[in-house]
Amino acid sequence: MELKHYFAVLAKWAWLLLLAPIVVASISFAVSKRMEPVYQASTTLLISQTGDASRADYNALLTSERIAKTYAELITKRPVLEKVITDLQLEMTPRQLAGDIDVSLPSSTQLLIVRVRSNDAIQAVAIANSVAATFLERNGRSGHTTYSAYEQVISGQLQKVQGEIQTVQQDLNAALERKKTLPDDAEEGVALLLDREIRQLQQSLDDARRTYATLLSSYLQISDQDNSAIQMEIVEPAALPARKIRPRIAFNTGIAAFAGLMLALGLVFLLDYLDESLESLESVEQALGIPALTTVPSIADREASSDLPMALLRPTSTYAEALRGLRTSIQFNMLREKQRTLLVTSSFPQEGKSTTLANLGLVMAQAGKRVLLVDADLRQGNLHTVFGVSNRVGLTDLLVHRLLPDESTLADTGIPNLFLLPHGARPTASSELLGSDHMAALLEHLNRFVDVILVDSPPVLALTDALVLAPQVDGVLMVVQVGRVSRPDAQKAIRHLQSVGAN
Fold first, then answer.
1. How far apart are alpha carbons 333 and 294 in whole angstroms?
2. Of the candidates 107, 126, 145, which is a domain's last residue?
3. Mean per-residue pLDDT for 107-113?
4. How confident is the model at residue 141 (pLDDT cuts 50, 70, 90)?
5. Does 92 or 338 have the greater pLDDT score?
6. One domain for residues 434 and 471
């Protein structure tokens, strides 16, 4: 049920689900085409150690990698960028230029890659090469630099870690001393907390000692390599980029189309959640909690303009076939429940109750049943117009004068077995007349002449007439126009009918 409902919702809003991605993708495409292009050029530098090759080991390689990380930070600092701006006569600040530069260090390598973005491809190449050249120039005429600066950095780190070791050792000694002086009758929880603190301090001390050992090894290696140096060289200068990196028109358009589809789906299911209309036979049954007999297709405007019943004008139409199916369902129920009078109503006007009643009466008469149509819509009834009979004397007159007609009083519609009792004069108090004892007696009297009586009444939520008629008939046929009547209104109409004991 739910899956079928969701497919129906998607089919209903298929035009929106198709249009939204197209519109959003078109806007994204137009905006992307108008965006200023961005090009990227990159220069690759190699950071390596020179000196005695026989002394190169893992620590030496690790030292080069650490220095490369330091250089990655230094290369975008103001001294380098100011010179690049001056040399290339760029109209930007060092901060703006730094925002267009990315420096990366590929994992487990001694490479340093400088990437520069610009709206001009040639300018991107010039800036990338100038940044690399300027940095090399500032860090040694031949591209070499000594270890002294890095040695100072490691020395400072050694002093910091040594201070941490001393602090942790003191805290550990104090904790051990507290454990020694802990009374034998101390609570078990206090001892456990103290043991946990000692283990944590011991772990911290071990970690600090390992860090100190690593730093000390690097420091001793640098101190031992007075003739060693870090060499920097450009291994791949920037080249003119083959294509722009932004805007990515195809990518942006695809993402926009997907986003448009997701937004449309969200809107569709939100509208469905907020939609209180009844759209199908299943939704009517689920909302009202009563069985729905069938669905009848709408009548085209050009055919609805005719006064004659559709089942007479187009006996082979889908509408006529649907009415025959409704006839079968109603006759089965009426036979099972021994019903002979049926009230036809709706929630609001213009839902097709009178049209349904006229056509239903016609197909019942064609099946050999003697059918009487009673126009009890004393305010807006027009069945006499549909069948072309006189409205001079009708139901109102019988009720006002408390008359019981004979069979000859019933209007002949010209259709075999089909008779009509029009509404007659327009009364001022229709509900009082329809709720009178004489109305019930009149229906009982008319049952003597026909097999089935179909009573047309005003809408339930518009007037009280249907509610006073409902207890006087054997059953009520509720006409619901899908797509027009809301779920709460239909439920309210059913509650009103059930409150007066309608079947």
1. 13
2. 145
3. 85
4. very low
5. 92
6. yes
- State how far the Cα of 96 lies from the Cα of 119, in Å rounded to an integer: 14
Single pTM value for the model: 0.54
Q: What percent of the chain has pLDDT over 90?
A: 39
C-alpha span between 47 and 13 (Å, rounded): 61
Q: Which residues pair with 475 in a beta bridge?
A: 342
485 phi and psi, to 5 degrees? -90, 135
Residue 51 lies in a domain: yes
Q: Which range of residues forms the domain containing residue 99? A: 39-145
Any domain includes 235? no
- The CA–CA distances, whole Å, from 162 to 175, 213, 216, 286, 298 equal 20, 10, 11, 78, 91
Instruction: Judge if 296 and 441 occupy the same domain.
Output: yes
Lookup result for tokens 């019933």: 410
Q: How far apart are CA 482 and CA 283, in angstroms?
A: 9
**Residue 342 β-bridge partners:** 454, 475
pLDDT, residue 180, reads 83
Which residue, of 183, 206, 221, is where some domain finishes? 221
Question: DSSP letters of 220-285?
Answer: HHHHH-TT-EEEEEEEE-----SS-SB--HHHHHHHHHHHHHHHHHHHHHHHHHH--B--SHHHHH
φ/ψ of residue 482, rounded to 5 = -65, 145
Claim to verify: residue 192 and residue 256 sit in the same structural domain = no
pLDDT band at 302 (very low <50, low <70, confident <90, very high): very low
| Residue 230 forms part of a structural domain | no
**Backbone conformation region of residue 23, classed left if phi is above 0, alpha if psi is from -120 to 50, else beta:** alpha
As a whole number, mean pLDDT of residues 53-59 equals: 51
- Asked if the model's pLDDT at residue 244 lies above 80, the reply is yes
The CA distance from 180 to 182, in Å, is 6
Predicted local distance difference test score (pLDDT) of residue 54 = 45
Contact, 389 vs 375, CB < 8 A?
no
| Phi, then psi, of 145 in degrees rounded to 5 | -145, 145
Task: Assess whether 266 and 288 both reside in one domain.
Answer: no
User: Quick check: 318 pLDDT over 60?
Assistant: yes
Alpha-carbon distance of 492 to 460, in angstroms, equals: 9
Distance, in Å, from the CA atom of 190 to the CA atom of 341, rounded to the nearest integer, reads 90
d(CA 436, CA 342): 18
